Amino acid sequence: MIDASAGAVSRPIARRRGRSRAAWRRRGLVLLLMGPWLAGFTIFFAYPIVWNAYLSFTHYNLLSPPKWIGLANYRYMLHDDPQMWPAVRNTLWLIAVLVPLQVVFALGVALMLARARAGVGVFRTIFYLPALAPPVAATLGFVYILNPATGPVNIILGHLGIHGPLWFQSPAWAKPSLVILGLWGIGNTMIIFLAAVLDVPRHLYESAELDGAGPFQRLRWVTLPTISPVILFSVVLGVIQALQYFTQAYVAANIASGQADQAGDTLNHLGYPLDSTLFYPVLIYQHGFAYFNMGYAAALAMVLLVVAFAVTLVIVLNSRRWVHYSGAVR
Amino acid sequence: MTTVAVARPVERRKLPPQVRRRRFLMVVANYSFLIAVAIAFLAPIGFIALTSLMTTNQALSPELWPHPFRWSNYLDVFRTAPIWRWTLNTMMYSGLATLGLLLSSIPVAYALSRLRWRGREIAFMIVLVALMLPPQVSVVPLYATWSKFHPFGFHFVGTLWPVIIPNWLGDAFSIFLLRQFFLTIPEEYLDAARVDGCGELRILTTVVTRLAKPAIAAVALFSFLYTFNDFFLPLLYTNENPHNWPLQIGLSQFRSLHQVQWNLTMAATLLVMAPVVVLFFLAQKAFVEGVTLTGVKG
Amino acid sequence: MRRWTGIVLATLAVGATAMGAAAQTSSKAGPSAAAAPAKITIWVGWSARELKEFKGVVSEYDAKHSDVQVKVVGSINDTKITNAIRSGNPPDVVSSFTSANVGIYCGTGAWIDLAPFLKKDHISLSQFPKTSLYYTQFKGKRCALPLLADSYGLYYNKTLFAKAGIKAPPKTFSQLLADAKKLTQRSGNKLDVVGYDPFWGFYSGNVADMTNYAPLIAGKYLDSKGKSILSKQFAWSKLLRWQKSFVDYYGYDNLVRFQANADEFSASNLFERGKIAMLMDGEWRVAFLKAEHPELKYATAPMPVDDAHAGLYGAGSVNGTIIGIPKGGKNVDQAWALVKYLTTNNHALARFSNGIRNVPSTRSSAKSKELKPDPRFATFIKIFNNKSSLTAPITAAGNANLSLISQFTVKYQAGKVKNLHSALKTLDKQIDAQNAQAGGGGPP
Questions:
Q1: pLDDT at res. A16
Q2: What pLDDT shows up at residue C151?
Q3: Minimal C-alpha gap between A319 and chain C (Å)
Q4: For chain A, where are the alpha helices, taking DSSP H only?
Q5: Which domain holds residue B155?
Q6: For chain B, what is the domain count?
Q7: Between B120 and A301, where is the model more confident?
Q8: What domains are defined for chain C?
Q9: What would the pLDDT profile of A76-117 be if each residue is shown by its tens digit?
Q10: For residue B148, what is the domain's CATH number?
């Protein structure tokens, strides 16, 4: 073994200089690799959010420069805008109804699929494919199918003696129609649940069986607790998607309201019928890009930012619990 | 002294008939549920397909079965709307966005997973935050900026460029997926390359990229899907310029351009769904890889 | 690595050229060299058959002016117009069906002031009818000119009338309701034929902002100070209540189902198919009927009026297409030349009026010998010239006021409003707030 003691005195300085050069090189490398993202994040994320905060205190219609009006936008939003609270309620409805239904339905299908032996591949494909369908196409299809007079669903219901509801034409049924559309597309969630359910270690089931647990008890005490992180993850992901829900509501409202874009129609189609499909992101779009009240839209967006950020914090701070690490360089 | 136990064939105790019957009923119930759900999932496609083969008047009537089958509807769709133009726009968008996204996200994911530096965890959290915030929080200022920015008279608003360009500076979801994958690469591979004298950049471009081919394929696939289905941002930027509409915008406007020709609209709907389905069957492995890459585990 | 670079560069090159080519065609055409004709673009709201007629008129202009080439883009709505102006990339000439938005267009300067051009070319405004002059300016600033006008009247199906034994079209609201009941046919709960469909939002006649009914009830939206008086004038709540009972007679759900699949501007129009016996519609329907359902036996008359204002019979709602030059357009002089031709040239107006059956918008073109007479169309010219005919009010908020009213009336019709009077008071306040802040800055 080389005797290192002789060089021990002179080594430290050289080693320090060498280490700092290596450290500088590494920092340079990190900057180089992270560079594009840093630039993108600043330009397309951080800067717009800051600018959005400023715009929320102005009146801005893109034709003339922004005009400072202080808290007037927020005051109008909270007190005078007749569509603001319906939009908030609609989005909350989505979170309270669509997200749990999607999770429960996806879980149910995954559990059934996990127990099947034959034809699993076929079923899995059938359940997964609609999730791939473009939202616009799926919405168009469903608006047609749920047409109250000539759509297949009401016709078949009519044959069964049931007087079908007005679906997308009725304020009471428009959101449930969107829920049905949402349930059609749970393929992604279902696949994740399926993988999680199949991953539950067999020995847990066996020991539960030995303790005399029936199938429902096994479900409740073994399966669900084991996959609970995945369930939680899906719920949170669902909430995030509900906070951005736009495409289906926009397309459904436009198509279901029936009239083509003709003849100077003064009725704004967004939220048809009667603001029942007016979700918060749709409201932002309406004020920002249909009415071009960009200052007010910015104010609405700030509120959304605060809510979404709170939800995001919940995930990010808990991400270690849900996301599996392996081989990480610690 | 060891005694050899005579191996007796394992006797499977026959379950009592009640248990067997109950188990059989549960299997039947299970499959009935699955079949019912499968029918419910296939029914919409069936109805859409049937309507796409009807005549215009029949599509407006309460009839369910086409009489006669008008296969020419699919040709009519191409004649009544500039489907090829829309498809070209979508392909441009998808191609350029996916390329840019891969080129810019791979280095970032590598830096976040295989290099040690201060602030790495915070940076990753910021990536996650950017991933989860709704796009609506930044659209107003971004649109305003793009609309005022016209160098050399080239107007970005009205084209898909404002939607494509951000992808060239990193995409949060791809960074996330790729990072998850890079975390699974055993350090030994990289150490072997380092010993051979490779600099970190060489390692990234040669070793890591080659190892990560399935992940890259999955990311490319997801990116294609996302851009193919994208509606909100293209709506904002190309709404008043039909020349630059991608497929989804064109499809959503199809009905208002051509009044209530539901048969053609449904045909167009199926045509727009088709590429995705085809892609799925061709690239199932990449799909599965992508899903597992999200790393969501029990 | 080299292979990668090659692929990357190739994709970029292809993508950039294709996108660039696409952008070229949509970006503005710059000022031309002496030889090449200037290219200008005009955006209009017409589509299909009507667009073809318009293109015919424009091609005549093109033929007469070799120094300019006009490109026509149809199916434009106001959102697209304002989008284009705001993004700094507008066409040279724009035309809109929503004359109510002239308050915004003139008020914000989105469409440029035409006064200097009118003065330079000595165009006299007296050739335009008074109402058309009203909806093409705001607070004295004229940023638009009328391009053909519209008036609304009653279309009725003579075959169905004969079958129900009705001799003459109704002249009052109560006659309208009675005739409608006689003409309605049901099978069980389903509506087969509807006598008159009063549903707010159904087709152009029933635009939910009530502008087409206002002249029939002598309703005024604003007082002399510009404040909203929907709750103060009894005529409005009377109309709303009457309309709601009319809808309830058919059954709200039944009407929705009945209306489910019948686009207004196609051959599946419910009146054209004989499923509705009476319809309030604009004068353009004459041309649509000729093109799509020439076999239908129908006649036209002025709309029935409120029983309390029977003397108003003969009046109707009046409106029109407006045309102007957006701010930021490049070829302003050529744009003005085209606008002048389209709005004042007798031949152009007569030809276009014959083609799409809209009312000619200047006094001289209304007397032109080129106009093809049509007794059913003549009704609308009379309605247009009736002195009690009204048009929608022009305000700083433009269309936004009317949108608010529309949202209210459909809610009331669905039975979601508890106290009509207090709800109308709230609506008045909201409209006043909108107008106060639209011009001066502030929330919507």
A1: 56
A2: 92
A3: 35
A4: 11-41, 47-55, 72-75, 84-93, 99-115, 120-132, 135-145, 152-159, 174-184, 187-198, 202-210, 215-218, 224-243, 247-256, 280-285, 294-322
A5: 82-257
A6: 2
A7: A301
A8: 7-150+318-385 (3.40.190.10), 152-312 (3.40.190.10)
A9: 889 878 889 999 999 999 999 999 999 999 999 999 998 888
A10: 1.10.3720.10
Domain assignment present for residue B291? The answer is: no
Convert the pLDDT of each residue in A22-64 to its tens digit: 777 778 888 888 888 999 999 999 999 999 999 999 988 887 8
Q: Which chain A residues have a beta carbon less than 8 Å from that of C81?
A: none
Interchain CB contact of C207 with A (< 8 Å): yes
Superfamily per CATH, domain A78-319? MetI-like (1.10.3720.10)
Bigger pLDDT: A300 vs C34:
A300
Bridging pattern class, strands C318-324 and C145-157: antiparallel
B266 found inside a domain: no
- The pLDDT value recorded for residue C439 is 58
**Closest alpha carbon within chain B to C46:** B257
Chains touching chain A, criterion 3+ CB pairs below 8 Å:
B, C
Average pLDDT over residues B118-127: 87
- Using the 3D structure, point to which of B50, B73, B96 is the last residue of a domain: B73
* Residues B237, B98 within the same domain: yes
Instruction: Identify the pLDDT of residue B257.
Output: 55
Please tell me whether residues B249 and B170 are part of one structural domain: yes
Nearest to B60 among C26, C47, C261 (CB): C261
Of A155-164, B111-120, C93-102, which gets the smallest average pLDDT?
B111-120
What per-residue string of b and e applies to C50-76 under the rule 16 or more CB within 10 Å gives b?
Answer: bbebbbebbeebbeebeebbbbbbbbb
Residues B86 and B214 in one domain: yes
- Per-residue pLDDT tens over the stretch C341-385: 999 999 999 999 998 889 998 888 888 888 888 889 989 988 988
CB contact under 8 A, B142 and A328: no
Q: Do A148 and C406 touch (CB under 8 A)?
A: no
C155 pairs with which residues across the strands? Answer: C279, C300
- Both B195 and B171 in one domain: the answer is yes
Residue B287, in any domain of the structure: no
A66: closest CA of chain B, how far (Å):
11
What does the pLDDT read at residue C274?
92
Tens of pLDDT, residues B151-163: 777 788 889 999 9
Residues B30 and B145 in one domain: no
Residue in chain B nearest A66 by alpha carbon: B144
Q: Is B272 within the bounds of a domain?
A: no
Q: What is the mean pLDDT of residues B250-259?
A: 72
Listed residues B73, B105, B137: the one ending a domain: B73
Q: Of all helices (H) and strands (E), which one includes residue B1? A: none
Q: Copy the structure tokens of residue B288.
A: 């599965």
In this prediction, residues A224-239 reach a mean pLDDT of 87
Binding-face residues of B in 26-55 toward A, CB within 8 A: 26, 30-31, 33-34, 37-38, 41-42, 44-45, 47-48, 50-51
Same domain membership, residue B126 and residue B43: no
- Based on the fold, state whether residues B172 and B230 are members of the same structural domain: yes
3-state secondary structure of C72: strand
Q: Which residue of C has its CA nearest to B91?
A: C15
For A100-137, the DSSP string reads: HHHHHHHHHHHHHHHH--TTHHHHHHHHHHHHHS-HHH
B132, B237, B289: best to mutate for the A interface, most A CBs within 10 A: B132
Q: How far is CA B228 from CA A108, B88, B225, C226, in A?
A: 30, 11, 5, 49
Q: Does A66 touch chain C (CB under 8 A)?
A: no
| B170 → closest Cβ in A36, A55, A192 | A36
- Same domain for B96 and B202, yes or no, is yes
